[in-house]
């Protein structure tokens, strides 16, 4: 079976619709066909400032949401990144074959550090993509299901894997991005050309999976759309409406064409109202299941510890090979 690995940051109390449609939905499907590793990347989540108690709660809530959305510990390996110390251990080596200029070209760092002010941005935010490369390469992943925003980081990962292999002997599989075009960039409701984001969207711009469905319906009703009236799928000229159609289409299992036909002669108001209902139907059972997992944290933690054990078996074997190739002293 081919391998996949992907991760998500516990940087908010709830995941949003972009996380689900762009990434997690694929994770659920890929468990059936791939040897799948998925992690809550708490090491990545401390790169832009955090509160310890909040981080721990969000890490659990993230795992609970992933299970509620359909990850099955019998079918995949679900774990918390910090419980597998091989990740930062490989990241150090990779950071030593990454060019400073190469890392400086990462758009996510440029965006996030610009928001924080260049002097306040941490070195961890800068080396974030190198740790991400380690996450992926430790598992010899063939494919990495992510949203469009992660494409550049995956290119860096491939470059680093290739460079390491050339310099020290074939060690790592070169991973391919697995990006589903239609849902690769779900946009902010208030800013329909920017990606919906846990940490940078305004509350009105994101549909949170754990939010009260009435609140989400209201946000959808206030979503920015153009001044036209016709419901058409045209991402270049009607990004707001097209984003609503994309979400509707996947959540309701209807094609965009079908939806455009159904809304012919009706305005944006109807589309927004009905998408609010579709979202409510989708999130209600997920919220219930998330709550159930969080009601039994001991069981949840046990499940994650088992995932970490499974992950470590694979990660430690890869790390041992990589350390040996680099020329480190044999481990004792
Ligand atoms: P943050 O703002 O803290 O970076 P985020 O919303 O970008 O949070 P991540 O945890 O960084 O979420 O990313 C988790 C996964 O969700 C990644 O695969 C990422 O590509 C995907 N993703 C995030 N936002 C979107 C989006 N708007 N559309 C599609 N995929 C997305
Ligand atoms: Mg992100």
Automatic annotation (TrEMBL):
Gene3D superfamilies: HUPs, Tyrosyl-Transfer RNA Synthetase. L-tryptophan binds at residue 135. GO terms for molecular function: ATP binding; tryptophan-tRNA ligase activity. ATP binds at residues 9-11, 18-19, 147-149, 186, 195-199. It is an enzyme of class 6 (ligase). One of its GO terms (biological process) is tryptophanyl-tRNA aminoacylation. It is found in: Cytoplasm. Homodimer. InterPro entries: aa-tRNA-synth_I_CS, aa-tRNA-synth_Ic, Rossmann-like_a/b/a_fold, Trp-tRNA-ligase, Trp-tRNA-ligase_bac-type, Trp-tRNA_synthetase. Belongs to the class-I aminoacyl-tRNA synthetase family. Its EC number is 6.1.1.2. Keywords: Aminoacyl-tRNA synthetase, ATP-binding, Cytoplasm, Ligase, Nucleotide-binding, Protein biosynthesis. The lineage of its organism: Bacteria, Bacillati, Actinomycetota, Actinomycetes, Micromonosporales. GO terms for cellular component: cytosol. This is Tryptophan--tRNA ligase. It catalyses: tRNA(Trp) + L-tryptophan + ATP = L-tryptophyl-tRNA(Trp) + AMP + diphosphate + H(+). Catalyzes the attachment of tryptophan to tRNA(Trp). A motif ('KMSKS' region) lies at residues 195-199.
């Amino acid at each position: 079976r081919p391998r996949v690995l992907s991760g998500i940051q516990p940087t908010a109390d709830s995941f949003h619709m972009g996380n689900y449609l762009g990434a997690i939905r694929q994770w659920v499907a890929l468990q059936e066909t791939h040897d799948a590793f998925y992690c809550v990347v708490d090491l990545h989540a401390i790169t832009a400032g955090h509160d310890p108690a909040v981080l721990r709660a969000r890490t659990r809530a993230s795992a609970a949401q992933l299970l509620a959305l359909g990850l099955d510990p019998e079918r995949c390996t679900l774990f918390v990144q910090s419980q597998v110390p091989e990740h930062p251990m490989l990241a150090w080596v990779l950071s030593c074959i990454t060019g400073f200029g190469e890392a400086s070209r990462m758009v996510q760092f440029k965006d996030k550090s610009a928001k924080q002010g260049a002097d306040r941005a941490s070195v961890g935010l800068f080396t974030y993509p190198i740790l991400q490369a380690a996450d992926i390469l430790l598992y010899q992943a063939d494919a990495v299901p992510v949203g469009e925003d992660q494409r550049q980081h995956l290119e860096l990962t491939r470059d680093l894997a290739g460079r390491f292999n050339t310099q020290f002997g074939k060690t790592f599989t070169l991973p391919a991005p697995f990006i589903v075009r239609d849902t690769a960039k779900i946009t902010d409701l208030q800013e329909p050309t920017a990606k919906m984001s846990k940490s940078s969207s305004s509350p009105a711009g994101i549909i949170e999976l754990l939010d009260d469905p009435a609140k989400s319906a209201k946000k959808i009703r206030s979503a920015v759309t153009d001044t036209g009236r016709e419901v058409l799928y045209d991402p270049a000229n009607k990004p707001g409406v097209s984003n609503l159609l994309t979400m509707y289409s996947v959540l309701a299992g209807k094609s965009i064409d079908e939806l455009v036909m159904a809304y012919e002669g009706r305005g944006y108001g109807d589309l927004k109202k009905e998408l609010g209902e579709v979202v409510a139907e989708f999130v209600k059972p997920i919220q219930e299941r998330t709550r159930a997992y969080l009601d039994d944290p001991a069981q949840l933690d046990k499940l994650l510890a088992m995932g970490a054990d499974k992950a470590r078996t694979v990660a430690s074997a890869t790390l041992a090979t990589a350390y040996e190739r680099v020329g480190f002293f044999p481990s004792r």
